[in-house]
Amino acid sequence: MNTNTDLLDMKVTLKERIAFGMGDIAANFFLQTIAVFLVIFYTDVLGITAAAAGIVTMASRLFDGVNDIFIGHLADRTGKYKKWVMYGSIASAVLFVTMFLTPNFGPLGKAIYAGLTFSLFTLAYTAYQIPYTTLNSVITDDSHEQMKLNSVRFSIILIPILIVSVGVPLILPPLAKALGSANKAYPVLVGVFGLIGIITSFICVKGVKERVQIRKKEGQTLTFKESMGAIIRNRPLIILVIAWFAQCLQYNMNSAAIPFFFTYVHGNEQLVALFSLIAVPFALVGMLLAPALSKKVGNRSLLIVSGIIIFLLSVLRYFFSMNLLVLIGATAISSIFTGMLNVICFTMVGDTIEYGYKKTGRDVRALNFSFFVFMQKVAMGLSAASIGFVLNKIGYIANVEQTDLSKFGLTLNYTLIPGAIILLLSLSMIFWNIPKSGVSIKEEENV
Fold first, then answer.
1. pTM for this predicted structure
2. Where does the pLDDT of residue 190 fall: very low under 50, low under 70, confident under 90, or very high at 90 and above?
3. Residue ranges per domain, the chain?
4. I need a labelling partner for 321 at 20 to 30 A (CA). Which of 172, 180, 222, 298 fits?
């Protein structure tokens, strides 16, 4: 990439990479808790139907889409992102706790409360997460350095993912017993997560430097219309957003299905923690391998192959759904490629920023990331809605022995449905048209 900061040193120290990675800890406490436990909390603790849970989450995510775009535009106009990260993380932590309270309302009142608290949380989360993801592009404009930042970032966020996925299933039952009920245990746990998130966000803000300045035309203010025009004309961004949507949708559907599958199909809820534990170290391997493999075979090829492999492993899971050894092996290998996908996709957003600037003359990097993050949230909402829809159709009833039809549906939610979705990632990347990081439009058109 070429910016007005060419004379500056774009090398990033390990200390700053770690500080940057700390900024994503809060987000992953929030996202992993929502991905794995929100639907089952809504149905089994709050007491709303599976269909209502799906509608609530999907509606909140659609509302959040407007916030993403608006916040991205505002952040670009200010050109400074660290303050957004700090204040947004505090508001997110407070509102996250309200999502896991259980007011003594009727069924409709509980559904409305769930939708309201989820929507308010997503608004605050947007004000924190979009500026945070944009920090990568203003810490350095060197694509290889950005890949290193993302590699460390995604390695660090395995800590909250591990704590939520493995620790919560182990801690929640005895904590609920000690406090008297699960509806008292959930707020305590998520409150601790929120506090940790505030502290780590502060470490991030204090530990990174915003070296790259937003490029603006002298005497002109970037308008919303101009920003949206730049996004619409950015073909590589649209393709990447579709690929990322597929990745997030399959990941969240698989994550949300895990507690249902192992609790009701295998009859052992302790397996939830086991399989989450297996996934984490292998995902770390994938994240650490991503920079080297990407440099060797290219981002596009690596994404296509990864999507196909994850799909094939989901098919294997389906046909051997009761064989724990096969499930362990498939989970381990799939996690490696999932880890690589996350690092590469976020780094490729930097390519779309430079492409868009060369194409339109508008530097809308936060807005680029806002569309990227928006699709992540839509995927979360759609995954919950899809899970809820399937649960409703198969006659799922919480806390009882499931019918054969119900078990079949729970197995599909865990295997073939998310597996089929990941193929969209591989198909969309066929049309990716930036062959190298930081390629100019002229070079890209000659390929």
1. 0.70
2. very high
3. 14-208+220-445
4. 172
Query: Comparing C-alpha atoms, which of 202, 136, 176, 200 is closest to residue 351?
Result: 136
Q: Is the dihedral of CA 340, 343, 346, 351 positive or negative?
A: negative
pLDDT at position 367: 81
Handedness of CA 42, 46, 50, 52 (dihedral sign): negative
What's the mean pLDDT in 388-411? 86
* Residues 136 and 12: beta-carbon distance below 8 Å: no
Q: Is the pLDDT of residue 337 over 90?
A: yes
Nearest one of 344, 330, 231 to 291, comparing CA atoms: 344
Under 8 Å between Cβ of 188 and 175 = yes
Classify residue 134 by burial, with Cβ atoms within 10 Å: 0-12, 13-18, 19+.
buried
Please give the CATH topology (third level) of the domain spanning 14-208+220-445.
Growth Hormone; Chain: A; (1.20.1250)
Q: Is 182 helix (H, G, I), strand (E, B) or coil?
A: helix
Assign 3 a pLDDT band (cuts: 50, 70, 90): very low
Q: Up-side HSE of residue 25: CA atoms within 13 Å toward CB?
A: 26
